[in-house]
Each structure stands twice: as C-alpha cells, then as structure tokens.
Amino acid sequence: MIKIDRETRVTLNFSLKLEDGQVVDSNFNSEPVAFEVGDGKLLPGFESRLLGMEAGEEASFTIPADDAFGNHNEDNIQVFDIEQFADADELEKGLVLSFTDAAHGEVPGVIQNIDENQVWVDFNHPLAGRALVFDVKIHNVEPRTSH
After folding, report:
1. What is the DSSP string of 4-38?
2. Largest alpha-carbon pair distance within the chain?
3. Does the predicted TM-score (pTM) go above 0.70?
4. CATH code assigned at 65
5. pLDDT higher than threshold 80 for residue 18
6. CA dihedral (138, 140, 5, 17) positive or negative
7. Domain count across the chain
8. Residue 147 in this model has a pLDDT that exceeds 60
C-alpha cells in the first residue's frame, strides 16, 4: 500500500474546526477532494501531518496558529479616515470589505472598529492566531501524475 509522501496524489474527506469545536469547513457530507502533495494549495502544516498515512486511515490533529495561518499581527491593522469610505454610514464592525493592495490585487479586510473620524481595518487572515483542528479520512493514495 502506498503511503502519503511528496510524490503522491491524495483523495480525502476533512473537517476543519476551531479548538472550541466550531466547524469552519467540512466535506464529510459530500464527495472527497483530491490534491497533489506539495502543490501549494493546502497549508504546509496540514500536509506535513498527512505524511506516512495510507488509504483507509483516519486521524485528528491540531495545528498551532504559527503552523497554520500565522499569529495575529497588530501591524496588519490599519487606520483610515472615515471620509475614504463612500458608504461610511453602512460600515459596521465585522464587515468584510475588499481593498486593493500596492500590486493592484484584491485583499480582504475586516472592519475592527469605527468612530466618527476613523475606521480600523484588520488585514490578518480571519483564522490568524487560531489553532486549527483537522479530522481526516484518507480514501486513496496514488503516485503523483505531474511534477
């Protein structure tokens, strides 16, 4: 039987939860997903914990924040003048807005705080600073088809 390594394609079901048990994402009620280990589509901290597993195995593991989406970084919170927002009266704490970065790419920001003059926007990943709990069921492991 083939074990998961950096040269394999893996088909699995997974659930992603916070440590308090809140489910963030899961595909256990749908078709399994397939990916190639090392293709950059999944968290390296997640992939590394799959190494050595085989089809038919199930596991649960916790990934600390610094091995997942990183720790919350206060430098990623920016303050804007409220006049910069066309719909300022519709702003509310927790609202996710799309911003344009220096490379003209879209970046999501979460409204963290608002007063009459300023808006604080958090550009950290929403799961930054959180340990993540994964449950996985491996359905298939096969040799990788592309490099």
Report:
1. P-TTEEEEEEEEEEETTS-EEEE-TTS--EEEETT
2. 63
3. yes
4. 3.10.50.40
5. yes
6. negative
7. 2
8. no
| pLDDT at 66 > cutoff 70 | yes
Residues 6+ apart with CB under 8 A from 91: 82, 85, 111, 114, 119
State both tokens at 6. 């950096």
Which range of residues forms the domain containing residue 62?
8-69+128-143
Task: Please check the confidence at residue 146 and state whether its pLDDT lies above 80.
Answer: no
| Cα–Cα dist 134/143, whole Å | 24
CA dist., res. 116 & res. 88, Å (int): 10
**Residue 67: strand, helix, or coil:** helix
pLDDT of residue 86 exceeding 90: no
The CATH number of whichever domain residue 95 belongs to comes to 2.40.10.330
Please give the single-letter amino acid code of residue 143.
P
**Average pLDDT score over residue span 26-42:** 93
- In a domain, residue 3? The reply is no
> What are the backbone dihedrals phi and psi of residue 110, each rounded to the nearest 5 degrees, phi first?
-105, 130
**Within a domain: residue 46?**
yes
Taking only the tens place, the pLDDT of each residue in 41-56 is 889 999 999 999 999 9
